Sequence to fold (432 residues):
Amino acid sequence: MEYYSLNNRSIRAGFREAATRGLAPDKGLYFPGHIPVTDPQLMEQIETYSKSELGFRILLPYVGDAIPEEVLYRIVEETVDFPFPLVQVRPQIASLELYHGATLAFKDVGARFMSRCLGYFSRDNKKKITVLVATSGDTGGAVASGFLGVEGVEVVILYPAGKVSAVQELQLTTCGQNITALKVAGNFDDCQSMVKAAFMDATLQTRLQLTSANSINVARWLPQQLYYFYAWQQWQDKAHPPVIAVPSGNYGNLSAGLLAYKSGLPVENFIAASNENDIVPEFLSTGAYIPRPVVTTLSNAMDVGDPSNFVRMMELFSQDAGALGAMVAGHKVSDAETMDTLKKVYGECQYLLDPHGAVAYRALEEYLLAHPGRHGYILETAHPVKFPDTVQQATGNPVPEPPAVRQLYSKLQHFIDMPASPDALKEWLLSR
Ligand SMILES: *Cc1c(COP(=O)(O)O)cnc(C)c1O
Fold:
């Protein structure tokens, strides 16, 4: 598969180059040169496939000969090594639980796949790959756990001191081995500017092989389409495909779902479920894409003011906003509605949502009211225990801690204190 830059179609790269670079040289996002059509026979018999087989068959055309088939199969097997249950919450609404991986967030799938691809690509490199990533919480944990122990790859995670939850900090700081956590005396924007400055720095560029690990990277983005195929395996009423509500921030997840749809997955409609940062729902109703400063909300992993994957959504519909709007309905959910939904779904259905899943639930519920006779599911992107205060406040009950979280408390934390300064980061990177 060849990928092209969304800034300039003539800038092309294979999967290996796209995954190791992250962004194209002209700073454009990489996009697949063509969208493979899923084998109709596979779709007919989808229930008979194991998760690994299905994942391998879907991802093979995107990877092509960049990775030998038996290696790719093993990578997929390790990536999807946990359940993706579609749980019925009400007769018309199910929840696709994507939080049964190592760090209890859906980002585990992308992080695990990307880390293993980079590990394979760096196997005969003398120079280690250094993955540099700034996190406001969830990304860092998924990346740390995904890359832990991967040969030839060093991971450096910057997080803002005092601004991530206790569980999130434990997930970042207890890995050890090839994972280093830098506790930055600043906020998330400081962390992000330090990372950006490092990528622009000529000395660092020549001395280290730097790459990033967010959803702009094709190796993190592409495997996310598997969720939607796993849901279809479990979907009972194949004559009536689902409406799918995706809680969205950077729109990596939703655009991966649209990619699956374009390659042949049956879907009735998508919902771009957003919090107050509703740049995309605004675009879908007005046709104007206007980035805005971020507003802090209860669903903070979706607090994004200029979603990077929006350009991929448009490209999937050949830059035709009308065609995109026919397949994707936008919906904004306030913090008050999020709390109300958490409380109501727990009280009436004994089902515990997290704030991000609650945004999607509310959006789907309102959509179904306006479109009677349809049914669908939400993507539940994080375990409620990652947001214990909000969830407890809404439901009145403490969130039970899964064993994976309890184990963290007994582990030793390691981090390096770092001033919020690009120069301090550069000096530290060069001194290692
Ligand atoms: C990252 C994240 C999202 C947003 O996903 P995008 O692909 O950026 O749209 C939603 N929910 C949770 C819990 C997340 O961590």
In short: The pocket of pyridoxal-5'-phosphate is lined by residues 105, 107, 138, 215, 247-253, 301-302, 356, 381-382 (CB under 6 Å). DSSP finds 20 helices and 14 strands in the chain. The longest strand covers residues 153-160. The radius of gyration is 21 Å.
